[in-house]
């Protein structure tokens, strides 16, 4: 059968439409909203997999940490049972993309609320206000805060905000940067470093892995507001997640989750934050 030009154009258009449909189905996530998924009884939540005490994928395949507890509580308030939450790894550099593409419904991953990030995603919270602090060996008595760092070897991660803060504000410290905080912790353990610095809750998580080995100085000197990331424009979902955060704080679950996540570290649980309903 001879195919004329009009038929070829029609067939080509149909093929392109089919290809686009297949690509959309295979690429990103579900187009439904957070609340649509919650009504179906399921949620996908982005967390960190490598931050003890906050978001950690355990060797048995389970997940633990304060961010995980927050995600489960919020999910429950949205009508989703903990066993029906799928946790997906959300590295720092990928959090906005995961939300924008619909690959996750929420991100609960030590996600600091900033004006720049709010251009791309919405935030509920904050559900925690962290501060940069110092972790030292348990027997250390010399380091009592950032003003006592003169001549001390302080470790942080290359290119991080905490490292830059030490460089700019406490130049008397001997700053050294490694690729990961785990390497900093090993250097602290071996005596090559006198202190490790980043957000206090992250440090508390590492301390919890080795009870009795380290202690937090508990003198935070910056402010980082952790929020729950939501796809831009999902206003109703953000309102409901904010409601859940406030309920978690009010009924004692927030404090209990922190106590569960950081036992024996000397971590002082702060006053709960005020949710910002911007």
Strand content: 15-25%
**What is the H/E string?**
HHEEEEHEHEHEEEHEHEHEEHH
Strand element count: 13
Terminal CA distance reads 64 Å
Backbone CA Rg: 23 Å
> If helices are DSSP runs of H or I spanning 4 or more residues, what is the number of helices?
10
Shape: elongated
Structural class: alpha/beta
Round the mean pLDDT to the nearest integer and report it: 88
Largest sheet: 5 strands, mixed
- Poorly predicted tracts of residues: 9-27
| Share in helix | 25-40%
Physical arrangement of strands within the biggest beta sheet? 5-1-6-13-7
Structural features, described:
By secondary structure, the chain is an alpha/beta fold. It contains ten helices and 13 strands. Strands 5-1-6-13-7 form a five-stranded mixed beta sheet. Strand 3 and strand 4 form a beta hairpin.
